[in-house]
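USER:
I would value a second opinion on how I read folds in token form. Give me a protein, with the fold worked out from its sequence. Write it directly below this note and I will take it from there.

ASSISTANT:
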Amino acid sequence: MRGASRHRHPTERGVEAPMHDETTKEAPPRAGRREWIGLAVLALPTLLVALDIGVLFLAVPHLSADLGTSSVEQLWIADVYGFFLAGFLITMGTLGDRVGRRRLLLVGGAAFGLASVLAAYSGSPGMLIVARAVLGVAGATLMPSTLALISNMFADARQRGLAISLWAACQFGGAALGPVVGGILLERFWWGSVFLLGVPVMALLLVLAPPLLPEYRNPQAGRLDLVSVALSLATVLPLVYGVKELAVGDGTAPAVPLAALAVGLLLGFLFVRRQLRLEHPLLDLRLFAERSFGVVLVTMLLGGATIAGTGLLVSQYLQSVLGLSPAMAALWYAPMGLALAVGAMLSPALVRWMRPGTAIAGGLALSAVGFALVALTDAGGAGGLALAVLGIAVLALGDGPLVSLGTGLVVGSVPPERAGSAASISETSLHFGGTLGMALMGTIGAAVYRSHLAGALPPGLDKQAGETLAGAVSVASELPAEPAARLLTVAREAFTSGLNTVGVIGVVVFVGLAALTAATLRRPAPAKTPVPAKN
């Protein structure tokens, strides 16, 4: 087994792997068969967490009818998973560095499996909300642990890049397949079946992880600062709540979400001050001293925000403008996630003949072309469908190198004892960027929609129909055929104009990000490669 004699696993007590001496000629050890099989094991929780984000979409009407949920309870069932996932990522990434990444992965996997059973057999909305919250906390242990373990298992930079690309492909491929898998299960089983996917996957992880995955922790890490943990949660949760509420609200009562954003920002300031004073902070802000680290994170945040917001409007366009059923809309939407996975998998081949920064910048430029296609989408039938689907596929394909190579640059730019913390920051940037983008782009799309309908509707119809396309559809259902058709035509054209505006914004943002990465990632900082410990 190639590399097995040189790539030994640290002991259960944890080992602080020394830094690779870049002044020597010794090449880092290459991973062997055991490490690649271990990567397949790490793909299990990565794929499942991504699936669990989207698999619930089509199940909400079924579980709502069965459990008798209110509209507020429906929102909590859908959102509480993402809230807790984003809120605990930083804490769990740093905790893994302290207690052991494999140990945290196994604990999180067991909790995820148990919470999946609890969610599947929930007898009330409250029980399901609690189960989804536990799933979010457990999911937060899985993502940074898998990424940090990859950095330990693959010391060779080229192998590590390929491993991270495969990891990213699982993450975004799973997100694309989530609604499709959910639809297939719901055709044959009850709504709880969408949660039971996690049980066999996590059982397999618990069996295979101990013999195949190394353990790693930083023995010199200090105690976990519980005040910092509380501040991180108190920062992230109000921010995520605020941007989500602004995204789904009608703009008439923004005081509560704006207050939540203000509270989150204030607590975030206190969190940063505390981290700068601690000897062993929960979030080591010195990581941002690395140029590639900061630039990639900013690019991930802004790029993820723009793509997520555009994806949200396209999904609404497919259903509300083109009139596709939820299942058909999910199928036409799947190319976005699959293209992102393909782009991530192609990234290792690109860096064989160009620098990572060049590959990332080129991909971002390609994404700008995809946004341009979205900007040209019209409210028609087949033509509009083709442009929308092709546009989101192209923009996602171009974003693949950023997700794959960018994640590799973030994790590779820090020493191995900080890999868990770096991985959690990378994941938080992606998740928060997506949430922020849905709020901002949704707000922009709604503003364009209202602007186009202002003055175009008769008195009495302008309030409900003029706020959202769903409102216009509701009003049209109560009108005679001819006025209803005119109203729907105007409303669908107005919504499409909002989508076009967001596409133009995407072109501007991604052209700017391409220029930024091309200018600042010409010579990325060398990876801090660990030398595996010897038994």
